[in-house]
Task: structure prediction
Amino acid sequence: MKKEDCIFCKLANGDIPTNTIYEDSDFRVFLDSSPATKGHCLIVPKEHFDNLEELSDDVASKVFPLARKMMKLLKEKLGWDGFNVVQNNGELAGQTVFHFHTHLIPRYEGDGASIAMSHTSPGEGELEKVLEQILS
Ligand code: AMP
Ligand code: ZN
Result:
């Protein structure tokens, strides 16, 4: 189902034109309008889901095979040196468009793009506590 006033519903379903690199009955893949690198694109389902939590298992099961297909295409056409697959859920995590999408970001030597993750050093027993919380 489409959602009224959702920009990605309109883009995915072709109601608003996009720079589409791939389309099938479930998805449209188009160039991000503010790309982090050359060829940065988005896998967007035609059906509306707010985020990964809401995504159907059927659509979810097709996202990674499609990501791999697009990686191959982009490798062939643009010749990337590395590749980030990024998917944000919730404002806190950087989601700005609340229709599920997956970023495909080809990386090139010296591209200067930053897909940052800062790591922490957990104290004694901290990881075990988290594990206990998750598994209890
Ligand atoms: P996120 O921050 O993960 O929700 O990503 C949203 C992405 O959508 C950003 O990278 C935007 O640049 C991109 N975006 C927003 N509007 C458009 C649009 N009309 N066409 C293409 N990409 C868009
Ligand atoms: Zn939508």
Observations:
- The first strand starts at residue 20 and ends at 23.
- The CA atoms of residues 8 and 99 lie 6 Å apart.
- Residues 3, 6, 8-9, 48, 99 surround zinc ion (ligand 2) (CB under 6 Å).
- The two ends are 37 Å apart (CA to CA).
